[in-house]
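Chains adopt folds. We examine one example:
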Amino acid sequence: KQREAIAAVNGETGECVGVIGFSRNFNRITWFGVLEKFRGNGIGDKLLQLALSKLDSSKEITVETFRDNYMPGLPARRLYLKHGFSETENNLFDSLGNERCKLAIKANGLKLFCDIKSEMDTPIVHRIISYAAFDGSPEGTRRTVLGYKNNERLHFYGRIENDEILGICGFEEHFDKIEIHLISVDENARGKGVGGAMVSALKKYRKPIEAETDDDAVDFYRKCGFDVTVFTHPVRGKRWTCILK
């Protein structure tokens, strides 16, 4: 049985802050954890991305984890779901009798929706942001990127296929909703369901999703099932509030 692991280590203290185990033979994640005080910094995202890159995406990739009624297991479960896993079995039990479930990414289904905040200064990210920024000029895009970087609450995720960023979604998770700040798709990837896939990934938070947009993008939100309401913004003029419950 070939089992491997990847560890995240604090560069200043040498402390191991996260570990993910995987098996190439069984094409599955075997163990995953990040120390609680280091969560929310993208460590889990990076570990899961690295582990998935070592597995065979032409075959089903699986993991067993806690069911959604076990609160301590929710952070890892949410991360799996954001990376394209879906629940396939929910009647499993471990050796101690704890309720478990099986999640899987189907063969050839590895299409990541993951944290790319560290990539915000790259040309591809700037280009995709410029399509949706209020001021899409190079200087306006730089200001937009700086604002996103300085917003510690903002999650900045990308839709990645074959190591290529096809779309970007910036959002905040509030107690009672998900607020989309930005959703944009590369010109060469439009019409392929990339934007809709990012919205679908946000549904896994199980909270209402809200966004504000203009005439150019409101039909996208309508197609995704949002209820839309027009209003007048004091600076930007005609705008739309979009809500998906």
The chain has a mean pLDDT of 90.
